[in-house]
């Protein structure tokens, strides 16, 4: 008896910016499209493409769109795509990153999907195309909330998942200079580290919203940095910290 074919999970991409960027970059991924009457006035090119490729598109009342989206935060439009698989870091991938001196962003158990989306938007803005996450409990994955908050940034990044970050960091530091964040001690600021010069391309590591970088990951870093502030609150939100670090190490000068 034949087993049923494996069904690839689907994912809702919500919001005009996210959906319009999806159509601009990867229109072939759209399986179905739904929109409310107000947003429908802007979807002419999208609908023409879907009609030519024999895909479903439909204008629906706002209350039905909310049911399709599974959230009130749909922004008037929902595109349904097949969930994108997380990539594996192979030897070829590591060699490509080394050859291209690729900027990298490593996330150590970032648990909030909205933070993940904001991190993706920051990464895309600064040209960081590869984001590495561990196969760890509590690690947020690129799902519907993250797509919505990223506002199109998901179309410019790839997610890679590794079994454990400490072991991966030990491998990666052969080609990249690993920079982690710390709230403790008298660490150098990101700018001081950058101005002293880096021996290898930077890979920035950001930790869990409450616990920060795990001790084993911190030990694997080449340098820990501390973003200087007024000491009125303990730290920046992780997505804000990512923006500071990406500007210092990946921003165009």
List the helices and strands and how they pair.
Layout: E1 10-14, H1 16-25, E2 30-35, H2 37-40, H3 44-52, E3 56-59, H4 62-69, E4 77-82, H5 91-100, E5 104-108, H6 113-125, E6 130-134, H7 144-150, E7 158-162, H8 165-172, E8 177-181, H9 190-196, E9 202-207, H10 215-220, E10 223-225, H11 238-250
Helix pairs in contact: 6-7, 6-11
Write up this protein.
The protein has 253 residues and is an alpha/beta fold. Helix content is 38%, strand content 20%. The chain has helices spanning 16-25, 37-40, 44-52, 62-69, 91-100, 113-125, 144-150, 165-172, 190-196, 215-220, 238-250, and strands at residues 10-14, 30-35, 56-59, 77-82, 104-108, 130-134, 158-162, 177-181, 202-207, 223-225. β6, α7 and β7 (158-162) form a beta-alpha-beta unit. The radius of gyration is 20 Å and the shape is elongated.
Average of the residue pLDDT scores: 93
From the spread of the alpha carbons, the general shape counts as elongated
Compute the number of structural domains: 2
Number of helices: 11
Distance between the termini: 62 Å
Q: CATH class of the largest domain, please?
A: Alpha Beta
Q: Reading side by side through the largest sheet, how are the strands ordered?
A: 7-6-5-9-8-10
Write the CATH fold name of the largest domain: Alpha/beta knot
Kindly report the name of the CATH homologous superfamily of the largest domain.
SPOUT methyltransferase, trefoil knot domain
Q: What multimeric state do the chains show?
A: single chain
Question: What is Rg?
Answer: 20 Å
Unreliable runs, pLDDT <50, ≥5 residues?
Answer: none
Question: Roughly what percent helix?
Answer: 25-40%
The ordered string of helix (H) and strand (E) elements is: EHEHHEHEHEHEHEHEHEHEH
